[in-house]
């Protein structure tokens, strides 16, 4: 009645962006859930948010005592109405805001936990981020934007290969020479998503990633 149902992880599948495969949606919801569960085993927790509080000034509480874990090989959705503090939580996770109280710790490659307030360099190496509003350089082409992000993340020697892979992922390879200031809103959103995946980081944070998308 309301269209063709898709799996919960449709946004992260290549065929959603590229229309390369035809998916049979005749299975029941329970069958789809079982299939997804068999493909994605939940690993250990790698991000720990404990009693997070963020205040602006003395009386504006944006985040009030929030705790959760993010797990390896799992997609976690943060849901809430406008103004409930979702983007503020993201900004605390990436180090843009310093939390008023509480802690955010992330597991490093060697299994040690580190606090984001004291290890910003390690934090930036561990995360990719797509902000709610696109942050792109107007006078760079799509390809140059991706190569810039690859270089900034320490992959300058492989920037052309990485840019090619990301262009293919979001189906922008035919537009790679267009300047960012000439892109539609949907194309900018796809480029922002591609930038978040540059560097093969183990944690990807996406703030309203489907807003304004025009999949083709």
Structure explained in plain terms:
This protein has 216 residues and is of the alpha+beta class. 31% of the residues lie in helices and 19% in strands. The protein contains seven helices and six strands. It has helices at residues 14-18, 29-39, 86-93, 120-126, 142-152, 159-169, 185-197, and strands at residues 45-56, 60-71, 101-107, 113-115, 127-130, 203-206. The strands form two sheets. Strands 2-1-3-4 form a four-stranded antiparallel sheet, covered by helices on one side. α5 (142-152) packs across α6 (159-169). Residues 19-40 have low confidence and may be disordered. Keywords: Repeat, Transport. It comes from Rotaria magnacalcarata. InterPro entries: ABC_transporter-like_ATP-bd, ABC_transporter-like_CS, ABCA, P-loop_NTPase. This is ABC transporter domain-containing protein. One of its GO terms (molecular function) is ABC-type transporter activity.
